[in-house]
Each structure stands twice: as structure tokens, then as C-alpha cells.
Write a structure and sequence with these properties.
Largest sheet: 5 strands, mixed
Number of domains: 2
Strand content: 5-15%
Strand order of the largest sheet: 2-4-5-7-6
Order of helices and strands: HHHHHHHEHEEHEEHEE
CATH topology of the largest domain: Heat Shock Protein 90
Helix content: 55-70%
Low-confidence stretches: 110-116, 309-314
Shape: rod-shaped
Distance between the termini: 24 Å
Number of helices: 10
CATH class of the largest domain: Alpha Beta
């Protein structure tokens, strides 16, 4: 049984049955009816006689069951005091069994014959009560396990969602501030590129604000976002770099977590070309075949830039995206990063969700 199955079973139960009082009332009512019908069929007893006897028996047994569930299990079994729990459970059985038998015999006017048949009835009553209390213990432990598992999964899900929101929030402001700084520099120069940058930026902000709030977006929209990002970098940098973006394969209805690729691409410009003295390059190759995706990014970098400095400066963003991959695509991706003297290469292979 997987950990998800108990939660699925719990979620499939109608809300009205999750109410403790409703569930317990229905359970005891069904137990009374089923047990009485079975006894009527086997012993050929009357309806009123059988129902009244079993109602009395279930009232006594019910009191013992709830004493077991709400007193004995929390105080002894939950604290792993097994010997004390078993001793008290047997004591409860020994107390209620003769009381139950005595009341039934008195009620049925069988007091003169009680002495002859009390031993046999007590044996049956003892076994039945011990089985019922043992079953209630198993049920209580199982229900508590289900509840604890469901609560743990809810906490894990909320923790993961909070972490994902935090990791994604690290992407948006970083790019926005960089772009606004570049736009500010261009407006000071009264460059004709400023209006195009504003237009591209508005399209990208619309995507980040309205599309990226969903857990997944269309891969085609993510590719459009990357294209706008690269166009924006070209407008900012002019002829100081050579950017190549090649898309191979068919993009139809595939979905992906938003802003999954942009930290890798942003890293090319911020920590690679940003320190390049001569004209640099960024080569991006995105291959899509069904639900299999292969992203290869290679950018030039300055030989004068220390390797450790590059790792420090780009480390936070790459650590964040790797963490997002671990959370969203566990066991479904392979990420290789090669920090060479003159180039920086990222290769991401990803199995998209169907």
C-alpha cells in the first residue's frame, strides 16, 4: 500500500460520514440490525426479543469500547505500556461479560435455568467481547494512522508549495531590476531602443504576473517568454554578443513548471557575457520529442574570470532551480553543468508530465 492510498480513501468518503457522531451512530445501528437478523436466523427467535437483548448487549459493549478507545489506548497503548494495557483490557472483558449475561438472563425470565447455562453463555460472551474490544483497538490505531499520515502529507504539500513560491519569487524581481537598470541607462542616452524594451518588458511582466501563478504553463508560452527575454538582451547589448536560439521538434500541448529555464539563460548574460571582454556568444538548443525535453545552453566566458567567482555569483540561482527540479520533477530529470575555462555548458534532460 502506497502512502497516497489511505489519503485517497479518506478523500473519497462523503463529508457527512466524516462527522464522528454520524459515523458512530450509523455503525452501532448497522451492528444492531445485522447481529439481530443473524441471531434470528440461527436461533429462530422473535424480532422484539432478539432486538431488545442485542440492544442491551450493545449498550454495555459500547460503553466498554469507548472506554477502550478514549481511555485505555491513549493512556497505555499509545505510550507503549503493552502489559498494562492488556491487563486492563482483560479486566474490562471479565467485568462486562457476567454483567451482560446476568442482565440478559434476568430479562428473559430464565433465572431458574441460569445456573445450568451460565458457564456456556459466559464463555461465548467473553470471547465475543474480547474480539469486539480487540477489533476496536485495531480500528482506532488504523484511523489514527490514517489521520497522522494525512496531516503529514498536508504539511509536506504546504511546505513544498511555500518553498516553490519562495524559489519562484527569487526569479522575478532579479530580472525586473536588471531590466529597469538597463532601461534607465538607455533613457539617459535617449536611445531609440527604449520603447522596444518597454514593449518587450510589458509582455514578459504580463506572463509572469498572470500566467506563472499556475503550477504549470504551456511549454509554447514558456518558449515565447524565452524568445522575448533573448530579444530584450539583444536590444540592451546591441552587437556585443551573438545569440542563437534553435527549437527542434513539435510543441503542442505539453506543459511545464513556469520559469524553469530562465535562471540558466539569465546566468549566461549576468555571469558569462557580463565579464567577457571580446564579443561573446550564447547558443541555446531546445529539443522536444513528445514528453521528452532536452535543453542545451552554452555561453562563452572570460578567461580572466576566476572559476570560483563564477560559481559564487551564479550559485544561488542554479541552486534554486535545482531545488525546484527536485520538488517538481523528482526522478524525472538529469542536469549536467560543465564550467570550462572558456565556456559554460548546461544540459537539462526532462520528462514532462503527461
Amino acid at each position: 500500500m502506497t502512502k497516497e492510498l489511505p489519503v485517497k480513501i479518506w478523500n473519497s468518503i462523503p463529508p457527512v460520514l466524516k462527522n464522528k457522531w454520524v459515523f458512530h451512530s450509523l455503525f452501532w445501528a448497522m451492528a444492531l440490525v445485522i447481529y439481530s437478523l443473524l441471531e434470528m436466523f440461527l436461533n429462530h427467535t422473535g424480532f422484539v426479543y432478539t432486538m431488545s437483548n442485542n440492544l442491551l448487549r450493545l449498550l454495555i459493549l459500547g460503553a466498554a469500547v469507548y472506554y477502550n478507545i478514549y481511555v485505555l489506548i491513549p493512556r497505555y497503548l499509545a505510550k507503549k505500556q503493552f502489559m498494562g494495557y492488556m491487563g486492563l483490557l482483560l479486566l474490562v472483558v471479565f467485568i462486562i461479560s457476567p454483567i451482560e449475561s446476568l442482565l440478559i438472563f434476568i430479562k428473559s425470565d430464565q433465572v431458574p435455568e441460569m445456573q445450568a447455562s451460565i458457564v456456556g453463555h459466559l464463555d461465548w460472551s467473553f470471547l465475543a467481547n474480547f474480539f469486539a474490544l480487540g477489533t476496536s483497538s485495531v480500528a482506532k490505531i488504523t484511523v489514527d494512522w490514517y489521520k497522522n499520515l494525512r496531516e503529514k502529507q498536508e504539511i509536506q504539500t504546504e511546505t513544498m508549495q511555500s518553498e516553490l513560491r519562495f524559489l519562484k519569487s527569487q526569479i522575478n524581481p532579479h530580472f525586473l531590476f536588471n531590466t529597469l537598470n538597463s532601461l534607465y541607462a538607455l533613457t539617459l542616452k535617449k536611445s531609440d531602443k527604449a520603447p522596444d524594451i518597454v514593449l518587450k518588458l510589458s509582455e514578459m511582466m504580463r506572463y509572469m504576473l498572470y500566467e506563472c501563478n499556475e503550477p504549470q504553463v504551456l511549454l509554447s508560452k514558456e518558449v515565447s517568454y524565452i524568445s522575448n527575454y533573448l530579444d530584450l538582451e539583444l536590444l540592451r547589448q546591441g552587437n556585443n554578443m551573438n545569440i542563437n536560439f534553435k527549437l527542434e521538434g513539435t510543441i503542442s500541448d505539453q506543459h511545464i513548471a513556469p520559469l524553469m529555464f530562465i535562471p540558466f539563460i539569465e546566468n549566461c548574460f549576468k555571469h558569462g557575457l557580463g565579464h567577457h571582454l571580446a564579443k561573446g556568444f550564447v547558443n541555446i538548443h531546445l529539443s522536444v520529442c513528445g514528453q521528452q525535453l532536452d535543453l542545451l545552453i552554452e555561453n562563452s566566458k572570460s578567461e580572466n574570470m576566476p572559476k570560483q567567482r563564477h560559481a559564487r555569483s551564479g550559485g544561488i540561482g542554479l541552486v534554486n532551480v535545482r531545488r525546484r527540479l527536485d520538488l517538481l520533477y523528482p526522478g524525472k530529470y538529469n542536469l549536467d553543468i560543465h564550467d570550462n575555462p572558456q565556456t559554460y555548458i548546461v544540459n537539462l534532460k526532462l520528462s514532462l508530465d503527461s
